[in-house]
Design brief:
Helix 10 (about 270-280) runs parallel beside helix 12 (about 310-320) and helix 13 runs parallel beside helix 14 (about 380-400). This protein has 3 domains: about 5-165, Rossmann fold (3-Layer(aba) Sandwich), CATH 3.40.50.12160; about 185-405, tm_1862 like domain (pyruvate-formate lyase- activating enzyme, Alpha-Beta Horseshoe); about 405-465, Nucleic acid-binding proteins (OB fold (Dihydrolipoamide Acetyltransferase, E2P), Beta Barrel). It is of the alpha/beta class and about 475 residues long. About 35% of the residues lie in helices and about 20% in strands. It has helices at about 10-25, 40-55, 80-90, 95-100, 115-125, 140-150, 195-200, 210-220, 245-250, 270-280, 295-305, 310-320, 340-355, 380-400; strands spanning about 5, 35-40, 60, 70-75, 105-110, 130-135, 155, 165, 180, 185, 205, 225-230, 260-265, 285-290, 325-335, 360-365, 410-420, 425-430, 435-440, 450-455, 460-465. The chain is built from 14 helices and 21 strands. The strands form 6 sheets. Strands 3-2-4-5-6-7 form a 6-stranded parallel β-sheet, sandwiched between helices. A 5-stranded mixed beta barrel has the order 17-18-19-21-20.
Length: about 475
């Protein structure tokens, strides 16, 4: 598949639309404000930062108060049903706000609207929504806003596409300490429960030099924590001469006092070479998020995951051997269609064997358009709920035990702000990406501190700063 990169001519056209919008807004007595809310994953948050960047370029200020906004944009997620319904509820609540302020522009974008059925529902049920646009045209926001401001009417812009790469969009980052850098977009895996390939398009990788240049700029600007994003970062590099381990090596060689983390890894593409790069690095976090989803080979095959439990355990054993203080986290789906008690029992056994530091656990939620939506699902919701609680009990014990080994150890913590366990503490994360609260001070924010761990909680560590 050939990757379509948005051309400089196309981007220049958008800048011209941005200037036209800015010229119109400039005559207003007060700078108009925009409200942007991103639902879901880190990729959506990253997209939201680019939406904000384009709005600022057009002359808008940003606000956290919808009541004072002239533009409201919901950047949506489609991964789980409750997230979709929450968006519909929040959009519906804007009806009265639009009545009070007829010149308010309401836009809904992102993964949710890339689904045809959902977009039609939005268009029909919420006539006050002015702009509905999909994931592949995010870079055209200046044109979309210009059209509504100058011509009126409603816009539905959801083209069928394998996806694009748009470099050079303005970014309004939410933090000076932490930043996310997308390295690839889309997905080719087509797990039977997942909607991402349908709403994000096929895999396409950014050029390694563009990524390296962006990271260099962030380091020069004082950023300390850089998160590399991709639906499956391990498969980065298609269409380039650099794979993911090599990209990590090149980033790790950059000078500066910073950390690199990444998400999400797919077990079928995770290699011992990748683990070696992490183990031998100066800057890469000792954290591997490796979603196993289920402990049954039978169900993994139905999920279209392309690995076995044996392969997964081999990866885990090698990673733990090479990185003794590795923080290993995972995702698990409970109650996948056709899953039996025996299959679920195998998941429990896997959790007891691996002893994850933490796990994101979900009861299966069918997504429209996926193969799993049409699979027979005989197990009751009540029974799945019992399994889910049983799983949480096992993981809670594993997580509580895993953090005990840090007591007495000294870890390097990037301080991010006030404490999570107590207002008397300051908080940050260790190189293992574990929350650490400690007796810091205001001047520690944005810097690294050595902290001796004195107490372990099921979800965090507590310690004393070493001067």
């Amino acid at each position: 598949m050939s990757v379509r990169t948005v051309t400089q001519e196309e981007l220049e056209e958008q800048r011209l639309y941005a200037q036209k919008v800015q010229s119109m807004l400039h005559i207003m007595l007060e700078k108009p404000l925009a409200y942007v809310h991103s639902y879901g994953c880190q990729q959506n948050v990253s997209d939201g930062e680019r939406i904000k960047g384009m709005l600022v370029e057009m002359g808008y200020g940003l606000t956290d108060n919808m009541d004072e906004a002239k533009v409201i944009i919901f950047n949506t997620c489609a991964v789980r049903e409750n997230a979709v319904e929450r968006v519909f509820g929040n959009v519906g609540a804007l009806k009265n706000l639009k009545k009070r302020s007829p010149d308010l522009i309401v836009a809904v974008c992102g993964c949710m609207v890339q689904q045809e059925e959902t977009a039609k529902r939005l268009q029909k049920t919420f006539p006050f929504v002015d702009i509905i646009f999909g994931t592949h045209v995010l870079h055209t926001l200046p044109y979309l806003l210009f059209s509504v401001l100058f011509q009126g009417g409603r816009i539905l812009e959801i083209p069928e596409s394998d996806g694009v790469i748009a470099e050079g969009l303005p970014v309004c980052r939410e933090s000076k300490i932490k930043a996310s850098v997308p390295i690839m977009y889309g997905c080719n895996n087509f797990c039977t429960y997942c909607v991402v390939p349908y709403v994000r398009g096929r895999e396409r990788s950014r050029s390694p030099q563009m990524i390296i240049d962006e990271v260099k700029t962030l380091i020069a600007d004082g950023c300390k924590d850089i998160l590399l994003l991709g639906q499956n970062v391990n498969s980065y590099g298609k269409g380039t001469d650099v794979d993911f381990p090599e990209l990590l090596k090149r980033l790790d060689e950059l000078d500066g006092d910073f950390r690199i983390e990444f998400m999400t890894s797919h077990p079928k593409d995770c290699t011992e070479r990748l683990v070696d790069v992490i183990a031998d690095s100066r800057h890469i976090c000792y954290h591997l998020h490796l979603p196993v989803q289920c402990g049954s080979d039978r169900i993994l095959k139905v999920m279209n995951r392309h690995y076995t439990v044996e392969h997964y355990l081999q990866l885990v054993d090698y990673a733990r051997k090479r990185i003794p203080y590795l923080n290993l986290t995972t995702d698990i789906i409970v109650g996948f269609p056709g899953e039996t008690r025996e299959d679920f029992q195998q998941t429990l056994e896997l959790m007891k064997r691996v002893r994850f530091d933490s796990a994101f656990t979900f009861i299966f939620s069918p997504r429209h358009g996926t193969k799993a939506e049409k699979m027979e699902d005989p197990v009751s919701a009540e029974e799945k709920g019992k399994w889910f609680r049983e799983l949480l009990d096992v993981q809670s014990k594993c997580g509580e035990d895993s953090y005990q080994k840090y007591i007495g150890q000294t870890v390097r913590v990037l301080c991010e702000g006030k404490g999570r366990t107590s207002s008397e503490y300051y908080t940050g994360k260790s190189r293992q990406n574990i929350i650490v609260d400690f007796n810091g001070c205001e001047s520690d924010i944005g810097t690294f501190a050595d902290v001796k761990i004195t107490k372990a909680l099921p979800w965090a560590l507590i310690g004393e700063k070493i001067n």
